[in-house]
Write a structure and sequence with these properties.
- InterPro entries: B30.2/SPRY_sf, ConA-like_dom_sf, COS_domain, E3_ligase_FN3/SPRY, FN3_dom, FN3_sf, Ig-like_fold, Midline-1_COS.
- With 788 residues, the chain is an alpha+beta fold.
- The radius of gyration is 47 Å and the shape is flat.
- The protein has an 8-stranded antiparallel beta sheet with strand order 25-22-33-24-26-27-29-28.
- Among the domains are: 1-57 and 114-157, 2-Layer Sandwich (Herpes Virus-1), CATH 3.30.40.10; 257-401, no CATH class; 427-462 and 485-530, Immunoglobulin-like (Sandwich), CATH 2.60.40; 534-570 and 580-625 and 654-666 and 704-771, Jelly Rolls (Sandwich).
- A hairpin with a 5-residue loop joins strand 1 and strand 2 (39-41).
- It contains 17 helices and 35 strands.
């Protein structure tokens, strides 16, 4: 029996950390629940509010204080009278009496007070308590019961609660507590204050304690109203009156019994999951303990390395100091010798000394040959001395200005001296990042980031719940395990290419840098949508003969520019009588006969009119050989075709184009089979995207809508279905869909009216052909089924 008690006591002691108040770090007393669901002592909450500038409220006495313990009566009293409810008011009544609601002296009571902000220590942020402050915070009665059981179990009955109504000299141990009287009694006193056959005999008996709680939680705003409902939206308990408030209109409100059972089932399920994975818990504890040991060992090694580095810097600084001091001494000696030589030379010019004495003795010579022979050297020295006197200058600079050290950079480096840091989270370049035949990801490091040796690129396919919607909770973790992260390791540079991906799928990508300090933070995740069909690679065809004065194709045959030439200038003579423009056709060098294919291009925003689409090869050749002057770029009422055939919706049109120009793209509303002298018009049966249907269109007309020109336009042709879909290639959002005649080979086609330019999207594989391949691995994630 004793072993069982010791085991229970040990288990309860391990729970003590969960019962601590986050402010005082002791076991909670009279805990209240904050809106963030954290519990805190009532006294601690009051002190925190006072520290933040709120007036101190009136608090009820602590349960174990003399003011709340009736056993502190005078020994001269024989028996203490029956405890009244006024002496033992519940804490929630005290809270409702005005705690947490403050009115300044000059404020009218009708004006609602400002909401109180409580800095919650576990959250690390301010929690809004509302206008009434802690009045709206309910007591955590469940936590109080757990604390009481904890105290009783840990003490193992060694601390007794004394009767509150016995005389102090003969005080007996309390054996019962009364929840209605809110006091503890011995057997004799209990019988005396609860006579048989009286209403007091029906009071609820509890274990003896000094901290009595209310029997049930009541609404803090409506006195004596029980909390029968739970608002899932607000995550608050409600009484029947609170439920009728407008603030909870439309919220998900359930009976508290249902919320109780639901939450209890969830906690039970989560506990069973943890208990079923105790091996995982023990394994992680072992890893954590090993990590703690490694942390201690590595910190000692790092401290030694720090001392060694500082010692190396000190030794190098001392060595450099000695070298500079030696250079300074050599300069001092050299300059001192030069100046000393000048001093000796000037001293020799003094009268009766040196050179002057020698010259005076030389002038005493009377033999001309001997004088001439001996005086030439003296004459040279005297001339040099006179020149030196006339142009006097110091032989050396005594200032030593060039021997001052500029250590500002070194001091800044020493001031900024710190441990090496991992690179900061890279920034994804969304303008260059794209999904085409392959995924191309481009990024850069922030300027204040430490350099990176290499990068790690991670990507995964985004899982979708059958029936639509994103995965969350346990289902999301299982989906993440199915579509696990894959990694490109040791990527050099700031870009990467990812291939072998599934079509028409959304991929999530992220990247992080690595250096000597390890891996840094991940970048923000970017989502890329792969094309809906295999990418078709083709070039602009020049076999049909280009008009060199109007249309120019680049050497790589992937870019074309239309420049209005002499023909348009000559046609301007007819401008007074009709609108006369010139259209030029350009096609791709491939003909599609089966399957689904996708390609993309970009149109220069300053282009006048450019049509992008597809058409039957035979019809395109026929249109090319026809005269290319037309009265209107959009519609010719006398096109030479049967109007009945044009109005028929049974046969699909031979061409399907979208018109772009002047920074806009035109999306037609309905069927429009007209084409001018063979110049194709737009297709039929448009399918607009949700964003367009929601009204995100700058302008509209009876025949269609104008939409801002996307940076890149995507075209997807389904040959078997005879359908062509146009996309915003940047986001893969459908813009328009229509039919096209696929009874024969179909070619990508482009039509220029006036000046404009067009660029085919280059394959990512061609752009990164010289890139060094990187190692590709799959990151294994361990997920256990929670249902087990």
């Amino acid at each position: 029996m004793m072993d069982a008690l010791v085991r229970i006591s040990s288990n309860m002691k391990s729970m003590e950390r969960e019962l601590h108040c986050p402010v005082c770090k002791e076991i909670v007393k009279q805990p209240v629940v904050l809106p963030c669901q954290h519990s805190i002592c009532l006294m601690c909450a009051s002190e925190v509010l006072v520290q933040n500038g709120y007036p101190p409220p009136e608090l009820p006495p602590e349960p174990n204080s003399p003011a709340s313990t009736p056993n502190t009566r005078s020994p001269h009293q024989a028996r203490r009278p029956m405890p009244s409810k006024a002496d033992h008011r519940p804490i929630d009544r005290v809270l409702r009496s005005g705690f947490g609601t403050y009115l300044s002296p000059g404020r009218r009571r009708k004006e609602p007070p400002h909401a109180m902000l409580f800095p919650c220590p576990p959250c690390g942020r301010e929690v809004e308590l509302g206008e009434k402050g802690l009045t709206d915070c309910l007591r955590n009665l469940t936590l109080e019961r757990i604390v009481e059981r904890y105290r009783h179990t840990v003490s193992l009955g060694s601390v007794a609660v004394m009767c509150q109504f016995c005389k102090p000299p003969q005080s007996l141990e309390a054996t019962k507590g009364c929840a209605d009287c809110r006091a503890s009694f011995c057997n004799e006193c209990f019988k005396l204050y609860h006579p048989w056959g009286t209403p007091r005999a029906q009071h609820e008996h509890v274990q003896p304690t000094l901290n009595f709680r209310p029997k049930v939680l009541s609404c803090p705003e409506h006195d004596q109203e029980r909390l029968h409902f739970y608002c899932r939206t607000c995550q608050r308990l409600l009484c029947p009156l609170c439920k009728l408030r407008r603030i909870h209109a439309g919220h998900k409100v359930a009976p508290v019994a249902q919320a109780y059972q639901t939450l209890k089932d969830k906690i039970t399920k989560e506990m069973n999951y943890i208990l079923a994975n105790q091996e995982m818990v023990l394994s992680q504890i072992t890893q954590l303990e090993s990590a703690i040991t490694q942390t201690e060992a590595n910190s000692v090694a790092a401290r030694e390395q720090l001392s060694q580095s500082v010692s190396d810097l000190t030794a190098l600084l001392a060595e450099r100091h000695a070298s500079l001091a030696e250079a300074l001494e050599r300069a001092r000696q050299k300059r001192g010798e030069a100046l000393a030589g000048q001093v000796a030379e000037r001293r020799s010019l003094l009268e009766h000394a040196g050179l002057m004495a020698l010259s005076q003795e030389l002038l005493k010579e009377t033999d001309p040959p001997c004088f001439v022979q001996a005086a030439r050297q003296t004459h040279s020295r005297l001339s040099t001395s006179i020149e030196g006197l006339q142009c006097f200058s110091l032989a050396a600079d005594p200032s030593f200005r060039h021997f001052q050290l500029d250590v500002s950079k070194e001091l800044k480096l020493l001031t900024d001296l710190q441990f090496i840091q991992a690179p900061l989270a890279p920034v994804i370049d969304t303008q260059k990042t794209l999904a085409y035949d392959q995924l191309f990801l481009c990024w850069r490091l922030p300027q204040e980031s430490a350099p990176a040796w290499h990068f790690s690129v991670e990507f995964r396919r985004r899982g979708v719940v059958p029936g639509g919607g994103a995965r969350s909770g346990i289902q999301g973790r299982l989906a993440a395990a199915r579509w696990g992260w894959q990694r490109l390791e040791e990527v050099g540079g700031t870009s990467a290419v990812i291939d072998r991906l599934e079509m028409d799928s959304v991929y999530v990508l992220r990247v992080r840098g690595c250096n000597k300090a390890g891996f840094g933070e991940y970048s923000e995740e970017v989502y890329l949508h792969t094309p809906p069909a295999p990418v078709l690679n083709f070039y602009l065809d020049s076999r049909w003969g280009l008009h060199a004065d109007r249309l120019v194709v680049s050497k790589e045959q992937r870019c074309a520019r239309s420049v209005p030439g002499l023909s348009l200038l000559q046609a301007a003579d007819l401008a007074l009588t009709s609108c006369h423009l010139t259209a030029d056709l350009l096609v791709g060098d491939v003909a599609i006969t089966q399957g689904r294919h996708y390609w993309a291009c970009s149109v220069e925003p300053g282009s006048y009119l450019v049509k992008v689409g597809v058409g039957l090869e035979a019809k395109l050749q026929e249109w090319f050989h026809l005269p290319q002057d037309m009265a209107s770029p959009r519609y010719d009422p006398d096109s030479g075709h049967d109007s009945g055939a044009e109005d028929s919706l049974d046969s699909p049109p031979p061409f399907s184009f979208l018109t772009m120009g002047m920074g806009k793209i035109f999306l037609p509303h309905g069927p429009n089979h007209h084409y001018n002298h063979g110049c194709p018009a737009n297709g039929t049966s448009p399918r607009r995207s949700p964003s367009i249907a929601n009204g995100n269109i700058p302008a509209s007309s009876p025949t269609g809508l104008t939409y801002p020109l996307p940076p890149r336009l995507g075209v997807c042709l389904d040959f078997e279905k005879g359908r062509v879909t146009f996309y915003d290639a940047h986001s893969l959002r459908p813009l328009w869909e229509g039919p096209v005649d696929c009874s024969g080979p179909v070619c990508p086609a482009f039509c220029f009216i006036g000046g404009g330019a067009l660029q085919l999207q280059e394959l990512v594989a061609n752009r990164m052909a010289d890139q060094t391949p990187v190692r590709r691995v799959t990151i294994q994630s361990r997920v256990t089924n929670l249902n087990n």
